[in-house]
Amino acid sequence: QVQLVESGGGLVQPGGSLRLSCAASGSIFSINAMAWHRQAPGKERELVAIFTAGGSTNYADSVKSRFTISRDNAKNMVYLQMNSLKPEDTDVYYCKFSATTYSAWGQGTQVTVSS
Fold first, then answer.
1. Taking Cα atoms as reference points, which of 31, 29, 17 lies closest to residue 73?
2. d(CA 74, CA 14)
């Protein structure tokens, strides 16, 4: 129904920046929220940032002031600008689409922060 494709991940030095992109396609009828989650090996998947259809945003405390989520509803795109990256930000980052009674995940993009 909804396909999500993430891009923009890679290997960066601590303190560096990346911008992740998520493109949504398919039968998108109602978008309640688009969000970014991340998951490190052996850890639970966690919410990083969310951008609701109403325009509100929320961030995990660990990324607040460093990451910024943005959204282009006309293009069905959501972005995550990541600045001042830290080794602990090393995760697979997943885009999530959430609508009433339906949600979908992308397959993830790897972000590795290492010197």
1. 31
2. 34
For residue 55, the 8-state DSSP code is: S
3-state helix vs strand vs coil in the chain, percent to 5: 5, 55, 40
Please report the DSSP string for 69-83 in residue order. Answer: EEEEGGGTEEEEEE-
pLDDT in tens, the chain (115 residues): 899 999 999 999 999 999 999 999 987 765 678 999 999 989 999 999 999 888 899 999 999 999 999 988 788 899 999 999 999 999 999 999 998 888 999 999 999 999 9
| Selection from 19, 30, 26, 37 nearest residue 4 by Cα | 26
Residue with tokens 């001042």: 84
Q: How far is CA 32 from CA 29, 53, 72, 92, in A?
A: 10, 5, 13, 23
